[in-house]
Amino acid sequence: MTNNPRSGDVAPHASFVVVANRLAVERITDDEGDLGWRTSPGGLVTALEPIMKAKEGAWVGWHGSPDEELEPFEHDGIEMIPVRLSEEEFAEFYEGMSNATLWPLYHDSVAFPEYHREWWDAYVSVNQRFAEAAAEVTEEGGTVWVQDYQLQLVPRMLREMRPDLKIGFFLHIPFPPQELFQQLPWRTEILKGLTGADIVGFQVPGGAANFLRLIRDRLGYETKRGEFVRDDGSRGRAAAYPISIDANAFQDLANHPDTVARAEQIREDLDAEIMFLGVDRLDYTKGLRQRIRAFGELFQSGQLDPEKAVFLQVATPSRERVDEYRRLRDDIELLVGRINGDMGQIGRSPINYLHSGYPRQEMAALYRAADVMVVTPLRDGMNLVAKEYVACRTSGDGALVLSEFAGAARELKQAWQVNPYDINGMKQRILDAASATPTEKRRRMRALRRQVFTHDINNWAESFLSDLGVEVESK
Ligand code: ADQ
Known about the structure:
The chain is α/β, with parallel strands linked by helices. 43% of the residues lie in helices and 21% in strands.
């Protein structure tokens, strides 16, 4: 275990270990200029926190600064195990293989995936380092839950080092059909890597089906009703576990008096009769080009009146060193500028574009303020924004326009569903949602809320872990 900063100094002791590309904490600098950590916002951390605390949990992940080596530390009752990445590994493993090869390939190749052998080499050695770190801390017979596309080799590596462990893997993004996946020069290695897990979890049944077909055809594994048999005769399972949000926490946040006041303020500032909202990471999978074009045409044709309607698009900066993301940002800014230049008036722009991340409470205020939420990815594993909007509509109104190509579309059937490649169809559905009667909106929202509140992030974690054979206290 040459690469691990902990080597040899700690006996395996954790019974439940999460392995993710990033640690569950972010660096902060306090008023005195001292460095500290705060828990990252996000459903995964929130859902796993109680289990980790109850079970002597550890979280293995990168801490976010290249070339820095850190000792394990405790944060809020959970042991954090930082894995080091060099600047070069960050470029090759993370920006390269993870985000310029696997990310586009797994999202229907909506951008061209690049294949570079040195990126692959970095991917293998970084996965090995994560696997070693997990192997070192997990106690005999313990459980390791590996997260996402950056770490697909970890399950097999870990299984080889520690056959006594229970290993789960969950893929947060889509798993592509065979026709696309087989482009990957390292397809066999990835499939082998994943089958090291006892349970390989996907967002939707289609992902599990794609995976099972591939391991049957490529690895020659026998598969039956979600089960697969490895070369050595041992068995694993592949199934769908649709991820969700902490619906009650969002609801409470949306009902907080400060949020209510902030939502009113947003509406006042926008000064429009109807507000449409988009909230996404600035990513080419999210369908921003098509969505903005659709709104541009609706304003241009007068189907939406720029004096009465406003479209607010919030885009979180993302992966800004990857070329494709830079191009996307330029394109979006050009498109928005052109539409506002053509259609705007002094002090009034039909499209309000904000390139920034916001605290959770501001997000809840935005959701509360918006009459119509427009979520139109070209492909998305799940899409939590759609579920967050629903959870924040505490008065039971509002309308959700949702792409058929988001995993969430399988659950959120009462949304106004669209094909984001069909700009005319999307324009029509946006208008349909906006002009539906209050009764129709409420009827649909009631069903959506029922779905989101009965399938929250705790249900997700519990169903995965109980299938893995981990006892989870029901809350
Ligand atoms: P993402 O691609 O990041 O996640 P999504 O599921 O929509 O997509 O989650 C985005 C999260 O970021 C949401 O919680 C949202 O509130 C937050 N967010 C977005 N814009 C923000 C902003 N400007 N400021 C602050 N917060 C913002 C990947 C997959 C998804 C899958 C999730 C979880 O691509 O398909 O649903 O993981 O598995």
